[in-house]
Amino acid sequence: MTIRTRPRRRLLGVASALTVGAILLSGCGAASTAAPSADATPRSGGDLVFLIDSLGATWIPNNSSISSYQGNIWGHLTDKLVYVDAEGTLSPWIAESWDENADKTQFTLHLKEGVTFSDGTPLDAAAVVANIDIWAKGRPDEGINRIGLFPSANYQGAEAVDASTVTVSFSAPTLSFIPTLAYHGSILLSPTTLALPADQQADLTNDIGSGPFTVEKVADGDSVVLKKRDDYDWGPEAIGHDGPAYLDTITYKQVAEPSLRTASVESGQAQVAYNASPQDLDALKGEGLTVETPRYLGFVNGYALNTTVAPFDDVRVRQAVQHGIDRDEILSTVYTEDWLGAESFIQSTVPEATDRSADFAYDPDEAASLLDAAGWVKGADGVRTKGGQKLAFTLYPNPYLQASQSVDELVDQQLTTLGFEVNLETYDVPTYGQKVIGNAAVPATEITRSFVDVGTVAGVLTSQKKGDEDWFKVGTSDATLNDLATRIATATDRDARAAVADELQGYVLDQGYFVPLTQIVQRVYVQAPDVSGVTYNGLAYAYYLDAWLND
Residue 328 contacts by C-beta under 8 Å, 6 or more apart in sequence? Predict the structure, then answer.
């Protein structure tokens, strides 16, 4: 067993925050001490400083747009065809409307006219076709990924019917297509950008979007400065904002230490701190700061168990882990009231989610019985063994999740009482990407994923189609899972698909493939009281088109 004591973070306070000023860009005004009135009038101008954990290693659009960090920047440089709100409701954006045929294999997009990329070229049907093609296919030989949740397997092609009309065809029913157009990977870029080789796409200054901001300056590993686009006038219908943004600039400044980020907002050196420690949120609220914890549509936070690696090649051991974790203790120890317990392996905000919490409820007696039945016997040191092997595995805290290490430490302690030997190995974001993500030998991956439509879950659960992620390493060996995944991906009726989604949730949990922990709040925003008008979409990203500063 590995037990690490992680002290509760203490806020730095204003005095300590003054030392942070040296690492911030100049020009940041002091934060107001009073929240604006409800009828405050938006005003133009001002520079918003957003402190972020990381700015990633590459800006190749297909590879970086789904990042929890870089997605914040892409959401302001680019637009999408469709907008999704926090309840999963779709509404027009660059696509003013859309049609689908009876068998859900062909979709027609009707585009808003007069939209241009920041280089002046039109965002027309030909540009949309070029974008859809690269979302679906990528250019893997060049290091440009396809967009992971795009329904690529059955994609036949897109065609520009005229300058403002696009038809998209699939070889099988694909109800998930229109919702996927609102996914944060589905960003619209100039065909000139898309034609660039990967090494040139990796330079953010070469990446031309149609969004409300453009790139003013990039300092690698340090900051990205965006400036308002004065001619922007095609924001999402749901936002209700006409014309360009109010803010002049947004500066995304990389500050790795969360306490430095929040202290800088406390002292007025910045306006937004991303991913504060959950243990600090109540104190920050008490100081008059705004704390936003939007939940996104998608999978909950939990462990995808590798069925090919001992001890998780035995369903009874997987089920023992499910029943051996006390989620109430995790919620009360690590999180605040903003977090909720998992009810399934998908978020309760997803329309097709059903409450399956009884399938993995905390029951240490049941967990012990399952391990006994599987032949794991406790030794004098409390660790179970079988055939000379310890009941041991390693957890790798996910650096994309702020409280992941604290959660894993608690899980370690809880499973240790059952006879597991749990070890923790902690990496930063780049190392985690190299050593954990995609590593077929990792026994348990703490994972979550946003998605806009439940039909896309099939692509992560098996490997029936090229590019499927096969979270549980079952390949195509589980005929029942294959059937459920196929049925949910190819349904033509939304009500019938909801019934399949319920069946799929029950089966995945019954097999112990996934161990739910909590409903995910992956993007936490601590905001100065002088910031108003921020909106959060269904992927839980802050959007500053309608935001302004009151100081």
Answer: 341, 362
User: Is 319 a residue whose pLDDT tops 60?
Assistant: yes
Count of CB atoms situated within 10 Å of the CB of 108: 15
- Coil, strand or helix: which one is 509? helix
pLDDT at 520: 86
Element (H, E) at 491: none
SS (H, E, C) 82-125: EEECCCCCEEECCEEEEEECCCCCEEEEEECCCCECCCCCECCH
* CB proximity list for 219: less than 8 A, separation 6 or greater: none
* Cα within 13 Å of Cα(275), Cβ side: 21
- Taking alpha carbons only, the member of 215, 235, 267 closest to residue 23 is 267
Token pair in block for residue 328: 């109430």
Q: Which residue has the higher pLDDT, 461 or 308?
A: 308
Residues 6+ apart with CB under 8 A from 464: 458, 476, 482, 485, 486
φ and ψ of 144, to 5 deg: -105, 110
DSSP for residue 162:
E
Cβ–Cβ under 8 Å, residues 189 and 61: yes
Strand partners, 227: 214, 249
Taking residue 173's Cβ as centre, other Cβ atoms within 10 Å add up to 22
Residue range 71-94, pLDDT digits in tens: 999 999 999 999 999 888 999 999
